[in-house]
Amino acid sequence: MLLKLNLGRPIHALVSWHLKTSCNITRPIHTASVVLFWERDPKGGYLRDKPKYPTTQLIRDGLKELKDEIRLWKDEVTEHFECDPILAFRPGETDIIWQFNDPASLERWVTTSDSDHNEGYSTCDLSLSKGGKGLFTGTLSTQTPKDGRVKKAGYCNMRSMRPRKSFKRDAYFDWRMYSHIVLRVRGDGRSYMLNITTMGYFDIMWNDIYTYALFTRGGPYWQLSKIPFSKFFLTSKGRIQDKQNAIPLDKVTNIGITAVDKINGPFHLEIDYIGLEFDPTHKEEFAYEMYTMPKYLVGV
Amino acid sequence: MIRIFENRDIHRRGHVEFIYAALRHMEVFGVHKDLEVYKSLIDVLPKGKFIPTNIFQAEFQHYPKQQQCIIDLLEQMEDNGVMPDPEMESLLINIFGKRGHPVRKYWRMMYWMPKFKNISPWPLPNPVPNDSFELAKMAIQRISSLDLQTKITVYQASELPDSIDDTWIVSAQSPVQKELLDAHPHDVSIFVEGAFRVWLRTASVSYFILRADPRPKPKPPPSDMDDVGNLRIPFFEMPSPGQELMKPPSVHEQEDGTIFAVCATGTSSRDSLLSWIRCLEADGNTALAEIPILFTLKSPLGEVVPISDTGESSEDKNITSGTDKLDS
C-alpha cells in the first residue's frame, strides 16, 4: 500500500484503503492475490468470470467480423487520402456528438449499476422516452447487501462506448478545439455526475476520469447545460486526486452520466443530445488553483 | 455518551472501538450531520501522544489504527456533506501532528468541499424544510425559474364553492402563458397531467402541468424550385401580404407540448386539480371556461407518479414527506 503511494495516485490508497480494495475484489477466493504494484486488468477484476471460448470458435467468429472491419479500414484509408479534416470550428455552434433519437443511438451506450455484480440494489435502464428522446431512468438504493464486503452502494451509470478504428483498434476522441460540453436534458431536480474518461496506456491511468456535476432543474422544461471543460477535475476510482491537471482533450475515450446522490428513490433524466461547443471568449484553462505544497505531503 | 466515555477511566482505553461504534450509530441518533459531534469524537483521542517524532514515523502512519479511524470519521463527514471548520484542524494537528494523514485528509476536504458547496445554479437550503407547503413553493419556484416573469400564486381550495378538499394550491403562470392560453383554439382540448416528481435534495414533490399538444408549425407553401418563370427580385420588394409571419416560440412552447401552468397541491387529488383549474379561470384565464380539459394520468413528458383519489400512496417516505396526505 505504501509503495503504491510512492508510485503515483495515492489518495485512495491512503484515505480509504479498506473501502477501495474491498470493492475491487469481486470473488472472495481471489483475496490472496491483491496486487499493489500494478493492476491486472482494466476492469478491476470484474470480468474475471467471463466465459472462455475455444480458439477454433474465436477464429470462426473473428473471420465473420473481417468483412465489416475491412470496410471500416477502407473508409479510413479513403479519409486519409482525402485529407480533409474539419478546421473551422465556428463559435456558438454546437456540434452534436450523441443524439438520442432512435434505438440505434442507444446501442452506443452501456448502463451499469451496483446490482450488476450483486453489490447493491440499484437498477437502471436507458431507453427511448415517449417523446423519442433518450431516457435514463432507474431506482437508486443505498442499501448494501449484507455480505460483509460491500461498504457502500448506490450508483447507476451510463457510459458511451469507446471509439475505435478498424480491426478493433482503440481510438480517442480529439476535442481539443472545443471549450464546452453542451447537454440538452430534462431532469428531475437531482444532480448527476458527468464523467469524461481519458483512459491512458499505463495501469495508473486506466481509471482517470474527469468529473463535474450536472445539475438539473426538474420540471417539464428542457434545460441546456453548457459546462466548460476547464471545470472538470481529475478523479480515479471515485477519489479526487491531489495532483490535478486540465483534461487532456485529445485523449477522451468515454463519456458517462452517473446518478450517485445518495438519495433513495427513482430518478429520471431525459437526454436530447450531448454536443460540443467552441467558445473563444472562454479563456480559462483550469478552474482550480494549484498550490505548491511542502514536499512529500500530498500525492507524489 | 461521549462524556460518559471520557469520565469512565483515567487511562481512557479503546478509543478506536468507541469511535467506530459511535460512527455506526450516529444516524440512529440523528446527529450524522452535526459537526460538533464529530469534533467531540475526535477530541476523545489524547493530544500529543500520536505525534510522530521522526520522518519514518510520519510517513509510515504512526499509530495506524487511530489514524485510519479518524480518516474514516472524516470520510463519513464527507459522505454526509458536513464541512469541517478550522477548530477541527487545530484539534487534528494537536493529536496527529502536522504531517498526520488525517490532517492531510482534512486539508483535502477543506480544499474541495467549499468549492462545490454552492455551485448549484438552483440553490436550496440545507437541510430542506419539512413542511410540505414550503417544499411545494420551493419546487414550483424552481421549475418556473426559467421564465422570470412567472408569478407564483397560492390558492386555497376552500375559497371556492363546492370544493371537497380543503387544501392549498401553489400555482405558477407567467403572462406569456396567459397569452398562449388565450390564443389557444377553443375546440382543441388541453390536458392536466401528472403527477411528476421533482427532487429537492432528499424530499420529492409531486407537481402537475396544464399542457396542450404542440402547435403545428406553419408550412411554407409548396414551391417548385426548378421553375424559373417566376423569379423574385428582392431589391424593391415590400413584404407582401402573402408572406406569413410567426412569433418566435416562447420557452413554454416545446416540441412535446405547450405548457400553460404548473402547480403542486396539498393533496395531489383530482378534486384539488379541479379547484386549481377553477382558480386559474377566476384569475384571468377566461378561456378555460370554454376549452375542454382532460385529466390524464399519462403523459408524453415522462413517467408519472400514480395518484389515487385518496391522495398519495405512502410507499415511499420521501414522497409522503413531499406532499401532505389527505386525512381520509
UniProtKB/TrEMBL annotation, chain A:
Localization (cell): Mitochondrion
Alphabetically ordered keywords of this record: Chaperone, Mitochondrion
Residues in NADH:ubiquinone oxidoreductase intermediate-associated protein domain copies: 98-271
Record flagged with keyword Chaperone: yes
Main location per the UniProt record: mitochondrion
A Pfam family: CIA30
Highest taxon listed in the record's lineage: Eukaryota
Record-stated family: Belongs to the CIA30 family.
Protein name from the UniProt record: NADH:ubiquinone oxidoreductase intermediate-associated protein 30 domain-containing protein
Automatic annotation (TrEMBL), chain B:
Key words, A-Z: Cytoplasm, Immunity, Innate immunity, Mitochondrion, Nucleus, Transit peptide
Region of interest: Disordered: 306-328
Source species, domain of life: Eukaryota
Localisation per UniProt entry: Cytoplasm; Mitochondrion; Nucleus
Main location per the UniProt record: cytoplasm
Stored InterPro entries: ECIST_C (IPR029342), ECSIT (IPR010418), ECSIT_N (IPR046448), TPR-like_helical_dom_sf (IPR011990)
Residue spans of biased composition, Basic and acidic residues class: 314-328
Occurrences of domain ECSIT C-terminal (ranges): 174-298
Family: Belongs to the ECSIT family.
Name this protein carries in UniProt: Evolutionarily conserved signaling intermediate in Toll pathway, mitochondrial
